[in-house]
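Milestone 3.1: sequence recovery, worked example.
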């Protein structure tokens, strides 16, 4: 299985982003490979954060604070900013698919309990997002194709992301559709995407059959990658 790549970005890359990197690799390492960096990297890991990660059994000797220029050209599937400053100054990642923000307060310089609190919040709030974005993509996705008065409707549920369905439609609209036959393409007059991640509806207008759309979906590289 090819692992998806995620970058966790903050200002100094000494505490929150290092913690998130270690936790993602430890808990989601079967499907995700995480790295971290800083907009203005401090060059050192917060010793309290490292001690906590060591106690939790998720620390690796290779973890270190590094500048953002060392990872700019890496083809990340997801970039996550975990502090407001990083969000505001986050550069463009030409090879990143998606950038999101999940903020946490910096425990640096505070009591040990604050580091534990940040660790728990990352596990509760950040890891499920990473799992949904990268581990569940295309997994346990259900497709139900049904006939409508003016075409065909496809309901995608479970591990489906709306952006994947939108990408598939855009590919067809720009002549890059790899799944439909030329005959089927000629029949489709319009395509509309509605809903959200986990529950997406795609409506196709035209004289198309359920069977030929099901066949097209089975060949889609976007859905089956």
């Amino acid at each position: 299985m090819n692992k998806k790549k995620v970058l966790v970005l903050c200002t100094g890359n000494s505490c929150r982003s290092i913690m998130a990197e270690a936790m993602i690799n430890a808990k989601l390492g079967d499907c995700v490979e995480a790295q971290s960096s800083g907009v203005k990297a401090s060059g050192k890991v917060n010793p309290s954060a490292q001690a906590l990660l060591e106690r939790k059994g998720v620390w690796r000797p290779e973890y270190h604070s590094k500048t953002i220029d060392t990872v700019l050209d890496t083809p990340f599937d997801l970039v996550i900013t975990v502090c407001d400053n990083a969000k505001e100054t986050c550069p463009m990642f030409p090879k990143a698919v998606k950038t999101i923000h999940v903020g946490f307060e910096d425990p640096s310089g505070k009591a040990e309990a604050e580091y534990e609190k940040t660790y728990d919040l990352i596990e509760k709030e950040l890891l499920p997002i990473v799992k949904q974005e990268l581990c569940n993509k295309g997994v346990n996705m259900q497709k139900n194709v049904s006939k409508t008065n003016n075409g065909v409707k496809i309901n995608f549920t479970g591990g489906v992301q709306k952006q994947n369905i939108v990408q598939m439609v855009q590919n067809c609209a720009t002549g890059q559709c790899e799944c439909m036959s030329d005959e089927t393409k000629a029949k489709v007059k319009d395509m509309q995407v509605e809903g959200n991640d986990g529950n997406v509806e795609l409506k196709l207008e035209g004289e198309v059959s359920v069977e030929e759309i099901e066949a097209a979906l089975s060949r889609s590289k976007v859905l089956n990658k």
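The domain at 4-135 is CATH 3.40.50.2300 (Rossmann fold). The longest helix spans residues 112-135.
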